[in-house]
Every structure is written in C-alpha cells, then in structure tokens.
Amino acid sequence: MTLKINSERLWSSLMVMAEIGATPKGGCNRQALTDLDKAGRDLFVSWCKEIGCELRVDQMGNLFLRQKGADNNLPPVIIGSHLDSQPTGGRFDGVYGVLAGLEVLRTLNDANQQTLHPIEVVVWTNEEGARFSPAMIGSGVWSGEFSIDYGWQRADKQGATIKQELERIGYLGETPCAPFPIKAAFELHIEQGPILELINKQIGVVKGVQGMRWYDLVIHGQPVHAGPTPMDQRKDPVKAAAQIIAQLYALADEYAPQARATFGDINVTPGSRNTVPETLTLTVDLRNPNQGILQQMDQKFRQISKQVCAACDVDFEILDEWNSPAVEFDKTCIDAVREAVEETGIAYEEMFSGAGHDSVYVSRVAPTSMIFVPCEKGISHNEAENAKPEDIAAGCQVLLGAVLKLAAE
Has keyword Membrane (predicted)? Predict the structure, then answer.
C-alpha cells in the first residue's frame, strides 16, 4: 500500500503557523530569534513531541526532531529548512519545508510504520539573514563554513548578538554545532521564481544551486557643474556605470538562459541635481549554475570595467563582497526524488535553484538534494507570496516517497 500524506492537515498546519507574525497584507514577519520566532519554534516542537519525536538543540539553536528507526545506530535521513522569515515575508518560504517534514513523520506515525534509518526534521537558525548577517548562519556554522564564535557574535542593528538572543528565548542548546553522519538530506521549498508556473509543472527536481558572486563597483570621477562643462570634458562615473551595466546585461544574454546579472543598489555622491557625481557605487550580482561559466563572467566583468573606465577617463575599484560557488547535488538523492515523482505521475522539470538555501551548506558534508513547487507569479520575500494547496500537497507526497526510498536502504 502506498502511503499518502494528509494534505488538509499539512495546509492547516501551515495556516496556523502563519498566524504567528501575521502581517496585515497576508504575509508573515517572524524574524530570527525574536519572540515570534520563539513562538513558532515552540509550536513546531510541541507538534513533533505529540508524535513521540526526540528534540536536540545545538549551540546555534538549530533544532533536530528525531523519529526513531528500526536501527538507531544507522545515520538518519534528514529533512530541513527554516522557520524565520523576512520582515515582509510570506507564509511558505522555509516553513513549508519544515512542516512538510513534520507531515512525513505524522504520516508514518498514522500508519504505525517505522523506517530502517531514523528520520530527523531540522530547523536551521537565521536562514534569511534579515535580522542577522550573513544568511544561512545556522547551517553555515554546522557545516564548518563559520566558527561557532563567529556565529554567536553576529549582531542585529540594535547590537543584540545571536548568542544573547538564543539565551533570551531559551534556544541556546548544548549539543555541539557540528556535522554528524547523515544518510541523505532533503529540502522541500517553494521555487521563489516563475519557471515552474510558466511551464505548468508541479515539481522541480533540483540538481544544484547557482554559483553567486557579489561585488561593489566603485567608480571615481570629477565633480563639475552640469551646465558649463561640455560632455567630452567630463570624468563622469555615471556614464561609465551605464555602459558597464549595458554590457553586463548583454553578457547575461550571451550565457542565457541560466546566467543572471543584477544591479540592486546604486549610490552617487555628492548627489546634487546639477553636479556630475564624484563617486558612484554600484552593487553587482552575477550568477550561473556552471562554475566555469561563472568564472568567465567574473573575468569579463573585470575586463569590461577596465576598458569602459579607461575610455571614460575615470578610476575604478572592484570590491569582492561574497563568493558562493555553484553546487551540484548528490546523484543518489536526485535519483530518489526523480523516481518518487515519476511514481506519482506528476509533471516535473529538472532545474537549478537561483536562490541560496541551507542545502548549499548541508551539501558540503552530506548527500543532499532539493524539491521545488511553484509559487504564484514567482513572487517570494513578499507578503503576496502564495502557493496552491494542490502543489503544496504534491511536493510533500514526493518528499515522502524520496525519504522512504533512502531510509529503507
């Protein structure tokens, strides 16, 4: 008999959790380690304990809810995501993956069925990075990317540190924040982009995560009067930036459809209407799932900047802000997801994630893959974020199938 998740129970749990931090426009504001995050954690833990799960809390406040297997000496299959949200976030980002993991355990409990391997549902601390920077700090410390002291010392805008806030809300655990043997790791998530909806597919089988490079491009010109100074006598950083932006958009088109180029913030000084700016600072975000192509994009960005700024007679510097290499997920985990979705007959697409997730760090120490479902118009990190109940259910059913395959071997 094929086990079926209880789709109404899953949807109801999502809607109850969404009431914690609910915003007037139908979204959610449940930022990391706030009183609302504590309330969300408390509710989730209570639901897990109702079905006999054991709780461990590590030094970064990551939660591990364990359902025993037939052989508890075997490494667990883990299902993980996050409960924290953006300040104007949605009802599904992160929390869907956590509560779908709970629904997998509830389904097994209803059927009185035990897997060979234990199963653990994990809540990673501060995935969003909205309150504490950087993002994904809980999984980052756990995977060894950051030290525990670095994680503890991250502070919000008011100066409160992660360690202080973990103590305050009662989630500073004693379990070392370090990896342990894991059979497989899965993360179910809304896509946060429009592709699945556009191609009318219910499931995304995620093969990896785009590599990402963040830069600050700083261009130094000469401030002069806008009226008397001829165009050919100017050292104008805006002119240089405009040409660089245009060429980087063309570069993204050259490497379509996977490449991305984004310029999220532009600032000029002195910021006077009738003065050519002295300095322009532009954020540049380049992404590609192929690490080799991302490196080529990096090199071409530097070449373009050098050539354009020389032609415009301005100086420039490129500050490297963040480098997250492309991630390829584990073949065995990807195959388990693909087989699970094929058994359901649901239409699916193999794809890469354009956003960062805790699975990026988890994949460095454990076999990992992700599952996506569509979200309405691709909107996320927004109070208007929405997903259809039937898609939410389909994703959880595929998750159950994938987990059962690997938890039985």
Answer: no
